[in-house]
Amino acid sequence: MPTPHNSAEKGDYASTVLMPGDPLRAQFIAEKYLDDAECVNKVRGMLGFTGYYKGTRLSVQSSGMGMPSMGIYSHELFEIYDVQNIIRIGTAGAIAGKVGLREMIIAVSCSTNSSYALQYGLPGTYAPTASWKLLSAAVKAAEEHGGAFHVGNILTSDAFYDDAGSLSVWQKMNVLGIEMESAALYMNAARSGRDALTILTVSDCPLRGLETTAEERQTTFIDMIETALETAAAVEKI
Ligand code: HPA
């Protein structure tokens, strides 16, 4: 059943969906890694595809940037399209000193400066947490892939341009990196009783004034995509 944001029919998505923020990355993944890929959504240019990775049916759907956008697409994937697993793949800024450019972060949990959780009316602070099933499969895939990676807490921020310059305060709490979508994804997964995980590559170190080149971002993105695809294929076999 199509929604205002998605023209796909029920059944068009596989039970596991990879979610990059950028629609063109979704298209790149579908074209490079999926056999028999079909485009299932084009509404607002937020491209989605379903195909086969090494014989396993998988989908890739872009999320757009920020929690409101991720909130819409992941809610509909879980609630309208019966998706079981969403694996976000994206870029992050490093916060912790031990996290270097081009390294990967697997997010156990997300701290956030967002008010997204207010909608649940909880009498305390909710802790958005990854699915253990996806997390343990991703750590195994990352170990087999061989690149440097970190596993821990990230910050999902509502602001890219942060006037308060608050990163050094989050650094004191050993937060590994900053991005803008995962807390909404983890909360939606919890609310829908489904599984979610975020895997990131470090594209910049805002506290140290370092950035990767566009070419480096493309290569490190490939390590992350392959880790996410192997994770997805592994959980589909469980
Ligand atoms: N801030 C927020 N999101 C990001 C960053 C950043 O520095 N780098 C990549 N995604």
CATH topology: Rossmann fold
Largest sheet: 5 strands, mixed, barrel
Question: Roughly how many Å apart are the termini?
Answer: 28 Å
Gyration radius (Cα, Å) is 17 Å
- The order of strands across the largest sheet is 5-8-7-6-9
Strand segment tally: 10
- Tally of individual helices: 6
* Total count of domains: 1
Strand content: 25-35%
| Full CATH superfamily name | Nucleoside phosphorylase domain
Give the cofactors and ligands. Answer: hypoxanthine
Helix content: 25-40%
Calculate the mean pLDDT score and round it. Answer: 96
**Any idea what the shape is?**
globular
CATH C-level: Alpha Beta
Description of the structure:
The chain has six helices and ten strands, in the order βαβββαββαβαβαββα. The protein is an alpha/beta fold. It has one domain (16-236): 3-Layer(aba) Sandwich (Rossmann fold). Strands 5-8-7-6-9 form a five-stranded mixed β-barrel, surrounded by four helices. The model has no long low-confidence stretch (mean pLDDT 96).
